[in-house]
Design goal:
Radius of gyration: 14 Å
Helix content: 40-55%
Distance between the termini: 33 Å
Structural class: alpha+beta
Number of strands: 3
Order of helices and strands: HEHEE
Number of helices: 2
Length: 71
C-alpha cells in the first residue's frame, strides 16, 4: 500500500514537471461514468470534472470529461 502511494505521488509530480517543461496548459481525459476508482484517481491527479458526455462510449455508455489546467 505504501509503495503504491509513492508510485502514484511520483506519477502526479512527473506529470506536472513534464507539462511545465513543455508549456502544456491543458491536459484532458475521459473516464467512464460508473468507474469510481478512475474518477477518484483523475481527481487526485488534479483533474476537474467538466461534465457528463451522454452516450460517448463505443457502447453508448456515459463518460465524464476531466481536465487539468496549468495557468
Amino acid at each position: 500500500h505504501s509503495q503504491m502511494k509513492k508510485w502514484i505521488d511520483e506519477v502526479k509530480k512527473r506529470m506536472d514537471i513534464l507539462c511545465a517543461a513543455n508549456k502544456v496548459w491543458r491536459v484532458q481525459t475521459t473516464v467512464k461514468a460508473n468507474f469510481k476508482t478512475g474518477l477518484r484517481f483523475a481527481e487526485f491527479l488534479g483533474y476537474k470534472n467538466e461534465g457528463l458526455m451522454k452516450a460517448y462510449g463505443p457502447d453508448k455508455t456515459d463518460y465524464y470529461r476531466m481536465a487539468k489546467i496549468y495557468l
